[in-house]
Structures are given as C-alpha cells and as structure tokens.
Amino acid sequence: MTYLSTNEVAALISVAESTIKRWADEKHIPCHRTLGGHRKFLLQDVLRFADENAYPVSGTIAPPGNQRGGHGLDIALQTRNFAGIADHFYGGALKADKQGLYELLSYLCKHHIPLSAVADRVIRPAMTRIGQEWLDGRLEINQEHLASNAVLDGLIHLGPELYRKPAHGRSAVCACLEGNYHELGLRALSYSLESEGWKVHYLGANTPVETLRSFVNTERPDVVCVSAKIMNGTHRILRDVRSISGIVHRLKTTYLVGGISDEDLSVAELKCDYASNSTDGAIAFLKDRFQLKPGPKKHRQ
Q: Are residues 156 and 177 in the same domain?
C-alpha cells in the first residue's frame, strides 16, 4: 500500500497542510495514525476524495528516491513532458529494474495521471524504442525479454494500489488469443477498466478461442477485449478474431480488438465494434458507448 504524509497530500491538491489535518480530524478524508501519532493517508483514499470533491491533483511531490535525475523527472511531470518521462521509464526498463519501474509508475499515479495515459504515452514509447533496438541488432533478445518482464512485474505490483471509481455494474473480459504472449497492453487496459469502475475478468496470454467463447457464454460480459498480433500470413489468428464475433454479437456484447498489426484492417474486416490502437482510445470509446460520465461534487474547504 502507498501512504502519503500530510505535507504530500497538501502538495498534491494544492491546499494548506492545516486544512488537510482539519479534514482528517473531522473525518472528511480517511486517515491512519502511526505509533508516533503522525497522520498517513492511503493514495487511493486521497484520489477518491479529490475526485468526489472536484479538487484537481495539480501539485507535485518528490520523485522516488532511487530515480536518477529526479529533478528532471519532477520538471517533466510538472510540464506534462511525457517524452521526458518515457526516457526515464526506458532507462529503468533497459536495466530490468522492477522496483524502480514500479516506483516510477506509482509516482505518476500519485499525481492522478490516468493509467491509460501512462500506458500510451510512457510505457508504449519506451517499449517501442527497446523493440526497435532489438530489431536493429543493438539489443539481445534476452535484454528485450528482461525489459518486458520487468515492466509487466511493475504493472502487476502497481495494480492493487490503483484508485478505482465506484463500480457501475458493467463487466469486461480481457484475453490475448492463443499464440499471443505479449500482454503488456492488455494488462494496462484491464487495470484502466478497473480504475473506471468495471469488473474485469482477466484471462491473460495464450487463451484458446474455445475457452474464451465458453467463458463469454457463461459470464455474459458487457465487453470482450481481445489482443492479437495480426501480421501478414497469420490467417489463423485473423480467423480466430473474426470467429469470436458470432457469440459476442449474439449476446449483444461490445467487441474490442487491439494488438499489433502490420495490416490495415478495418472494423468491418475484424468483425468487431472498435479496433483499438491505444488504451486511452479504448477507454474513451467505452465511456461514450455506455454513457459512463459522472460529474464530481465540490467539498467545502
């Protein structure tokens, strides 16, 4: 669990430290006391309070202690220089620094940057860069694998700490089709959906089509999200993607397809409702599709 001090909470939502203490004492915001009597706040509770009471999380707190160039990371965060943040992330991934990557992800989420934005604008550019360096022969395959596994480990470690909006009763199934083992994007999408109040059934990598069809028929989710690497000549995978649409649309379920493709395939060709090339785009599509746009309420200072 990630705890913040009174000073860090005050810095994040740009109010006086005395105000945070008063809110804690009046039980407006959940607070835990250490044995020494210091107030500590769970990150999830702070973000929930900010959302419910229309306080923008616009301040900053110190970067993780083990981040080299912490001041530069702080400036990049303040200016929303995602390219600069992605450079920091790339460095951690290249070193397979699981703890450092987790702390960097946690640092970004503490500042209420949606995980969907982190996935698209930090994780993807960093991993694309590493992938290209492997293709160019500048990295060994073991380095690429170590980097990918370290990022996945950091995401999994982060998952329980993410702030989740109240459940709205909708559910989703997320799966990589059989033969697809790269689940970073799918994992980021599943956590982003959970953050938005979805109940997510995460089936993960290498899911056989029949297994997915059977699960969908039993659970009857509102959304099925499939990740599949479709390349020239991989007709079986494309056939699998299309085959799922039958049961999905019979159940009047929304069908999203994402992943890496070197073919320009349309929604009609994939037989899906949305072809996703970004986590943010998928979240925006589903918010619009299911009209999930609650407004915040304001709390008195």
A: no
